């Protein structure tokens, strides 16, 4: 049995839910696809599909095998691509996923420069706040924000993810400015639904030789939304306090439309230290197109990140 040909046939059949459609796509006979799958099932000692008149449905074993087969096939494709492209410029289709607010502000504006620098790379962009399965979605690289969960994915830290408690001048004139984290409990807070819970965590290291002070604040407020831009707009309109990332609020902070508070405290939405990451599937050798994009993004963002210029952090 040609094992890789059989695995490719199985993966295509799992996607198409049909041996005949797979055969047409691969340019082989339907009986050949059926034989490949039968030989795989015999080798593995488990059924990969439940067969019915309506089509093919993966068994539990089939789902597990498909997940790992996709990684193996991608590794083989990458090996072929890397070997054939030695001493050549990065090329091929690059599928990228970005979070909405960050992507529109700090990645999409730089894509023309990236595409000009690498004319043989085509960009397939998916902008969403949903955390996509990179293997199943055929994603080459993702930009993600926060604390990364344990996973098999590879990651490169692009920048810190700093947040600042802030509000409009009009809000502070009406309600006063909090002088310590506990004061926030008496303020109207603009809550982000993407946070794990309605709490903000504060840390301050007043003495470098002593353990840092910590505070946990329960939030209250009439607004809760799943969009960072919506929180920013309500903060600018004087509707409450917001805990906004500097990459989102820097312009409004610099021009005075937002005023920072509790500047000697570091504020987070969780206990883990967040960051901005480039994430990509695990491979022994990172493809040249992925490396080119990640290096380009790190270069554009800089250290410290360009959006923090002029902010007192």
TrEMBL record:
Coiled coil segments of this chain: none
Recorded family membership: Belongs to the LysR transcriptional regulatory family.
Designated name of the protein: LysR family transcriptional regulator
Keyword Phosphoprotein tagged: no
Highest rank taxon of the organism: Bacteria
Keywords associated with the record: DNA-binding, Transcription, Transcription regulation
Stretches assigned to the HTH lysR-type domain: 1-59
Classification via CDD domains: PBP2_CrgA_like
């Amino acid at each position: 049995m040609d094992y890789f040909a059989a695995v490719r046939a199985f993966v295509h059949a799992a996607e198409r839910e049909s041996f005949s459609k797979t055969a047409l796509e691969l340019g082989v006979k339907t009986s050949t696809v059926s034989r490949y799958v039968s030989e795989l099932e015999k080798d593995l000692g488990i059924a990969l599909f439940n067969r019915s008149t309506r089509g093919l449905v993966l068994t539990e074993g089939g789902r597990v095998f498909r997940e790992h087969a996709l990684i193996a096939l991608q590794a083989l494709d990458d090996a072929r691509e890397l070997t054939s492209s030695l001493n050549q410029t990065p090329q091929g289709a690059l599928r990228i996923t970005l979070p909405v607010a960050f992507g529109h502000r700090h990645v999409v504006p730089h894509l023309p420069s990236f595409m000009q620098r690498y004319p043989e790379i085509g960009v397939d962009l998916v902008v969403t706040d949903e955390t996509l399965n990179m293997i199943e979605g055929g994603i080459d690289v993702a930009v993600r924000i926060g604390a990364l969960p344990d996973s098999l994915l590879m990651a490169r830290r692009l920048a810190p993810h700093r947040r600042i408690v802030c509000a409009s001048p009009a809000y502070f004139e009406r309600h006063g400015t909090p002088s310590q984290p506990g004061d926030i409990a008496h303020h109207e807070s603009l809550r982000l639904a993407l946070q794990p819970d309605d709490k903000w965590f504060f840390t301050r290291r007043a003495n470098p030789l002593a353990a840092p002070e910590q505070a946990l604040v329960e939030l209250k407020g009439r607004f809760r939304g799943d969009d960072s831009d919506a929180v920013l707009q309500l903060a600018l309109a004087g509707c409450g306090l917001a805990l906004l990332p500097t990459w989102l609020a820097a312009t409004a902070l610099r021009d005075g439309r937002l005023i920072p508070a509790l500047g000697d405290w570091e504020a987070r939405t969780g206990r883990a230290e967040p960051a901005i990451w480039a994430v990509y599937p695990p491979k022994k050798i990172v493809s040249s197109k992925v490396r080119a994009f990640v290096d380009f993004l790190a270069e554009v963002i800089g250290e410290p990140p360009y959006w923090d210029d002029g902010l007192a952090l």
